[in-house]
Amino acid sequence: MRYRLQSADDLMNAPPLRWLVRDVVPADSLVALFGPSGSGKSFLALDLCAVIAGGGEWFGHRVTAAPVVYVALEGEVGLSKRAKAWSARNRRTLPDDLRFIMQPFNVSNLSDVDDLARAVLAGGGADLLVLDTLNRAAPGADENSSRDMSQVINNLGTLKDRIGCTVLVVHHTGKDTSKGLRGHSSLFAALDAAIEVRRDGDRREWSDAKVKEGPDGERHRFALLRVDLGEDEDGESVTSCVIAPDESTVAVARPMPSGKTQRLVYAVMDMLLSESRHFDKAGAPSGRPCVELEAVVPVIAERLLCRPDQREYQVRRALTSMTGNGEIYQARGGWLWMN
Prior knowledge:
The protein is built from ten helices and 17 strands. The protein is α/β, with parallel strands linked by helices. The protein has two domains: 228 residues, P-loop containing nucleotide triphosphate hydrolases (Rossmann fold), CATH 3.40.50.300; 79 residues, no CATH class. Strand 12 and strand 13 form a beta hairpin. It holds the Pfam family AAA_25. InterPro entries: AAA+_ATPase (IPR003593), P-loop_NTPase (IPR027417), RepA (IPR038724). This is AAA domain-containing protein. It comes from Paraburkholderia aspalathi.
């Protein structure tokens, strides 16, 4: 039979979720690492790959050592400099389990997908496959087209299933970085996890923008350290950069509700957002579920135990306290979403 009924015991005894990077990158999943140009996302991606291939910890998160294949589509020279800088900074070569593919690749072409999967499997397989960047991996595709992005998502899923790995795509934000991933919202919705990279001047940070089966919202600040690689044939200095945690700060977790009313509002909002079929409203980041303020206030108010004439006031007061930059929620144009 095609379908099998499972009991509650079956579900509770199912194998636990595996992680490549605990609470950040799940195994056997589709992940995006995204940010604006110049934010340091490709440096961060290489550092992530090196740590997974070698084992250890990444920004305090436990890592399961695993083979990695990095498909570099934005230039061999730049990647070579980054590799040399990483090795110089860490005083060791990149791990043997981190391998690279430099040839052009088109994820929209099933022949390319099949060839890449065969090459990775013939080389011993991988638990993480990185495509840097998605834009270069999907030449000719319209990122804003539901049809084109559905094909890209399906073919990324084929790669994941054929190789038996996590596929991580490095992607850009649009001109308005507050809207998250560039392109159609179906991509963010299809992701199992997403790492967002932000830059404000010299300050950089990455955060868990989405983790389906774990906590999200934790932020880590990092710096790009310049590494001198010597001189070229003209005597000019050659440099690159490496990732280093920003030691002046610590990881910043998303604010949590305080007090009985805020905790109740937070719990109901969590349910309403998870059930919402509205996305990307009023400038919300791509794929972020949204709810209408005036629709949720009476729903939450019904669950408060205070005087009936005070309930909606208390809900609005709690939501106002939890909304804004650096808070739990963001609001615009009558819509609410999770920061």
